[in-house]
Amino acid sequence: MKKVFAVLLTIALVMSLGMSVSAASSPEGVSYYKVYVIDGQGADTEVIKVPVGEDATITANADPSKGDFDKWMFYKADGSAAVEGKDYEIVSGTATGSPITIIPLCNLIVTANYGGKITEFDITNNEPTSPQTGDNTVVVLSSVMMLALAGVVVAKKQLAK
User: CA–CA separation, 87 vs 112, rounded Å?
Assistant: First the structure.
Protein backbone atom coordinates (compact mmCIF):
# COMPACT_ATOMS: atom_id res chain seq x y z
CA MET A 1 0.00 0.00 0.00
CA LYS A 2 2.87 2.38 0.80
CA LYS A 3 4.38 1.76 -2.63
CA VAL A 4 1.09 2.58 -4.31
CA PHE A 5 0.92 5.88 -2.43
CA ALA A 6 4.57 6.59 -3.31
CA VAL A 7 3.82 6.02 -6.99
CA LEU A 8 0.69 8.18 -6.88
CA LEU A 9 2.53 10.95 -5.02
CA THR A 10 5.37 10.88 -7.55
CA ILE A 11 2.93 11.08 -10.46
CA ALA A 12 1.06 13.96 -8.80
CA LEU A 13 4.29 15.88 -8.15
CA VAL A 14 5.58 15.34 -11.69
CA MET A 15 2.30 16.52 -13.18
CA SER A 16 1.96 19.56 -10.89
CA LEU A 17 5.55 20.72 -11.40
CA GLY A 18 5.42 19.96 -15.09
CA MET A 19 2.48 22.32 -15.49
CA SER A 20 4.60 25.35 -14.58
CA VAL A 21 7.05 24.51 -17.35
CA SER A 22 4.40 24.23 -20.02
CA ALA A 23 2.50 27.26 -18.72
CA ALA A 24 5.46 29.66 -18.84
CA SER A 25 5.02 32.25 -21.53
CA SER A 26 7.46 34.68 -23.06
CA PRO A 27 7.35 38.20 -21.71
CA GLU A 28 5.52 40.62 -23.94
CA GLY A 29 6.44 44.24 -24.38
CA VAL A 30 5.88 47.08 -26.74
CA SER A 31 6.76 46.23 -30.33
CA TYR A 32 8.81 48.83 -32.12
CA TYR A 33 10.72 49.49 -35.31
CA LYS A 34 14.42 50.27 -35.10
CA VAL A 35 15.71 53.03 -37.30
CA TYR A 36 19.49 53.29 -37.65
CA VAL A 37 20.60 56.75 -38.74
CA ILE A 38 24.17 56.98 -40.05
CA ASP A 39 25.29 60.54 -40.78
CA GLY A 40 28.08 59.90 -43.28
CA GLN A 41 31.02 57.54 -43.58
CA GLY A 42 32.59 56.62 -40.24
CA ALA A 43 29.86 58.35 -38.23
CA ASP A 44 28.37 56.82 -35.12
CA THR A 45 25.09 55.03 -35.64
CA GLU A 46 22.11 56.55 -33.88
CA VAL A 47 19.42 53.99 -33.05
CA ILE A 48 15.87 55.31 -32.74
CA LYS A 49 13.03 53.09 -31.58
CA VAL A 50 9.56 53.85 -32.93
CA PRO A 51 6.47 52.05 -31.54
CA VAL A 52 4.74 49.89 -34.15
CA GLY A 53 1.28 51.08 -35.14
CA GLU A 54 1.88 54.71 -34.27
CA ASP A 55 2.57 57.38 -36.85
CA ALA A 56 5.71 58.43 -34.99
CA THR A 57 8.05 60.51 -37.09
CA ILE A 58 11.82 60.68 -37.22
CA THR A 59 13.65 63.78 -38.36
CA ALA A 60 17.19 63.49 -39.69
CA ASN A 61 19.49 66.44 -40.33
CA ALA A 62 22.62 66.47 -42.45
CA ASP A 63 25.77 67.91 -40.90
CA PRO A 64 27.10 70.78 -43.07
CA SER A 65 30.57 70.39 -41.55
CA LYS A 66 30.93 66.98 -43.27
CA GLY A 67 30.92 68.43 -46.77
CA ASP A 68 28.40 68.83 -49.55
CA PHE A 69 25.29 66.83 -48.73
CA ASP A 70 24.08 64.65 -51.63
CA LYS A 71 21.09 62.61 -50.52
CA TRP A 72 19.51 60.29 -47.98
CA MET A 73 19.43 56.59 -48.79
CA PHE A 74 17.04 54.12 -47.17
CA TYR A 75 17.63 50.42 -46.61
CA LYS A 76 15.76 47.62 -44.90
CA ALA A 77 17.42 45.95 -41.91
CA ASP A 78 18.74 43.18 -44.19
CA GLY A 79 20.61 45.75 -46.30
CA SER A 80 18.31 45.69 -49.34
CA ALA A 81 16.89 48.94 -50.71
CA ALA A 82 13.79 50.25 -48.95
CA VAL A 83 10.82 51.39 -51.03
CA GLU A 84 9.02 54.65 -50.31
CA GLY A 85 5.36 54.06 -49.47
CA LYS A 86 6.00 50.43 -48.52
CA ASP A 87 8.90 50.60 -46.06
CA TYR A 88 8.78 54.28 -45.09
CA GLU A 89 6.82 57.44 -45.83
CA ILE A 90 8.30 60.90 -46.26
CA VAL A 91 6.31 63.42 -44.22
CA SER A 92 8.36 66.50 -45.03
CA GLY A 93 11.49 67.24 -47.00
CA THR A 94 12.97 65.23 -49.84
CA ALA A 95 15.58 62.52 -50.20
CA THR A 96 17.98 65.10 -51.62
CA GLY A 97 17.36 67.74 -48.96
CA SER A 98 17.93 68.23 -45.27
CA PRO A 99 16.17 67.98 -42.90
CA ILE A 100 13.91 65.08 -43.76
CA THR A 101 11.05 63.70 -41.65
CA ILE A 102 9.87 60.13 -42.19
CA ILE A 103 7.49 57.54 -40.73
CA PRO A 104 9.14 54.10 -40.66
CA LEU A 105 6.96 51.13 -41.66
CA CYS A 106 9.65 48.52 -40.90
CA ASN A 107 13.17 48.37 -39.46
CA LEU A 108 15.21 50.88 -41.47
CA ILE A 109 18.74 52.06 -42.06
CA VAL A 110 18.96 55.72 -43.11
CA THR A 111 22.29 56.98 -44.40
CA ALA A 112 23.43 60.48 -45.26
CA ASN A 113 25.77 60.70 -48.25
CA TYR A 114 28.31 63.49 -48.70
CA GLY A 115 30.64 64.53 -51.51
CA GLY A 116 29.42 61.93 -54.01
CA LYS A 117 30.34 59.01 -51.74
CA ILE A 118 27.84 56.34 -50.73
CA THR A 119 27.92 55.76 -46.98
CA GLU A 120 28.78 52.15 -46.19
CA PHE A 121 27.32 50.54 -43.10
CA ASP A 122 27.54 47.39 -41.05
CA ILE A 123 24.63 47.01 -38.67
CA THR A 124 25.05 44.14 -36.26
CA ASN A 125 22.56 43.09 -33.63
CA ASN A 126 24.49 43.84 -30.45
CA GLU A 127 21.54 43.95 -28.09
CA PRO A 128 21.25 41.26 -25.46
CA THR A 129 18.64 38.62 -26.08
CA SER A 130 15.83 37.97 -23.66
CA PRO A 131 16.36 35.04 -21.33
CA GLN A 132 14.40 31.96 -22.21
CA THR A 133 11.31 31.38 -20.17
CA GLY A 134 10.59 28.15 -18.37
CA ASP A 135 11.90 26.69 -15.18
CA ASN A 136 14.89 24.41 -15.76
CA THR A 137 14.91 23.41 -12.09
CA VAL A 138 11.45 21.93 -12.50
CA VAL A 139 12.58 19.96 -15.54
CA VAL A 140 15.51 18.47 -13.60
CA LEU A 141 13.33 17.72 -10.56
CA SER A 142 10.67 16.09 -12.75
CA SER A 143 13.33 13.93 -14.41
CA VAL A 144 14.66 12.81 -11.03
CA MET A 145 11.13 11.94 -9.88
CA MET A 146 10.49 9.94 -13.04
CA LEU A 147 13.73 8.01 -12.45
CA ALA A 148 12.64 7.40 -8.85
CA LEU A 149 9.30 6.12 -10.11
CA ALA A 150 11.09 3.75 -12.48
CA GLY A 151 13.22 2.57 -9.53
CA VAL A 152 10.10 1.90 -7.46
CA VAL A 153 8.55 -0.14 -10.27
CA VAL A 154 11.75 -2.18 -10.80
CA ALA A 155 12.14 -2.74 -7.05
CA LYS A 156 8.55 -3.90 -6.77
CA LYS A 157 9.03 -6.42 -9.59
CA GLN A 158 12.28 -7.68 -8.01
CA LEU A 159 10.60 -8.13 -4.63
CA ALA A 160 7.63 -9.89 -6.18
CA LYS A 161 9.87 -12.70 -7.51
Answer: 18
Considering the entire predicted model, what is its pTM? 0.58
Residue 133 has pLDDT above 60, yes or no: no
Cα 132 from Cα 75, distance rounded (Å) = 31
CA distance 62 to 72: 9
pLDDT digits 0-9 by tens, 94-124? 888 888 999 999 899 999 888 888 888 877 6
HEC assignment per residue over the chain: CHHHHHHHHHHHHHHHHHHHHHHCCCCCCCCEEEEEEEECCCCCEEEEEEECCCCCCEEECCCHHHCCEEEEEEEECCCCECCECCCEEEEECCCCCCCEEEEECCCEEEEEEECCECCCCCCCCCCCCCCCCCCHHHHHHHHHHHHHHHHHHHHHHHHHC
Amino acid, res. 7: V
The backbone region for 15, taken as left when phi is positive above 0, alpha when psi lies in -120 to 50, beta otherwise, is alpha
